[in-house]
Design a protein that fits this description.
Elements: E1 2-4, H1 12-25, E2 33-36, H2 45-60, E3 66-69, H3 73-81, H4 84-87, E4 92-94, E5 113-119, H5 123-144, H6 149-168, E6 173-181, E7 190-198, H7 202-209, H8 224-233, H9 235-238
Parallel strand pairs: 1-2, 2-3, 3-4
Antiparallel strand pairs: 5-6, 6-7
Helix pairs in contact: 1-2, 5-6
Length: 244
């Protein structure tokens, strides 16, 4: 059995290390992949998406299921609340029972949370799924940032572009939105985190497949970041509604 032990699902560096652990685990034979969350007390949206991405890739490589173990009750309750275990079925499983007193209440339309929303890659569905994500994002942003119309518009446009690109990635994905209280007990600010992921070919490979490349700059090699910037600034050239 392969085993991963993330130190955190909060910051990008820790999540990147988790992906490196997973890359090493892929060299092992088939069997369950165990992710030990004993040191994780809190998960940000991109950390949650890392769990489902890892589990799905492991499963689709013919390895088997991924099992989450040693969850703190509060983390377990949050992951259940955002529908991780429903979204991750059948490749992501958990065998711990969550006591009823730890379960979080649900509301049909939350101003704090968009649960894991599937973005189906097929053209027949992606537009409807993107629209649902954007409408929920708009609702959350309108509630918490009513005075920032321009910024709200730009964030929704960005979400639209990223979610729409799942179609071009030749895959399917998920979107999560989470609102947090501002830092500090006396703070009246809010933070909204939007995360979208898929396991497709990526922006770089999508552009390369079309024969599109950022211009070479002396002393700077082309990278994923330069392809992303090229897509954002050359939407019409790249041949898509949102840059790809």
């Amino acid at each position: 059995m392969a085993r991963l032990s993330p130190k955190s699902l909060f910051d990008s560096q820790s999540i990147e290390l988790l992906y490196h652990q997973f890359a090493d685990a892929l060299a092992t034979g088939p069997g369950e992949l165990e992710i030990d969350l004993a040191e994780v007390k809190f998960a940000r949206p991109h950390g949650v998406l890392a769990l489902v991405n890892i589990a799905r890739h492991w499963y689709e490589q013919g390895k088997g299921q991924t099992v989450l173990v040693n969850l703190f009750p509060t983390l377990h309750a949050y992951l259940e609340r955002i529908d991780l275990f429903t979204a991750g079925d059948p490749y992501l499983v958990i065998r711990q029972n969550l006591p009823a007193e730890h379960r979080l209440s649900r509301t049909t339309v939350s101003a704090n949370l968009l649960e894991m929303l599937p973005i189906r890659g097929a053209s027949a569905y992606v537009e409807a799924d993107c629209l649902q994500a954007i409408e929920r994002a708009k609702y959350i942003l309108d509630v918490w940032f009513p005075a920032h119309q321009t910024e709200r518009y730009r964030l929704c446009l960005m979400l639209s572009e990223i979610a729409e690109n799942i179609k071009h990635s030749q895959d399917r994905g998920f979107a999560i939105i989470q609102r947090y209280d501002g830092r500090g007990k006396s703070s009246k600010t809010s933070e909204v985190v939007i995360a979208v992921s898929d396991l497709g070919i990526g922006i770089e490979q999508s552009l390369i497949s079309k024969g599109l490349h950022p211009p070479l700059v002396e002393g700077i090699a082309r990278s994923g970041a330069t392809y992303l910037n090229f897509a954002q600034t050359n939407g019409n050239v790249c041949g898509g509604k949102y840059g790809l």
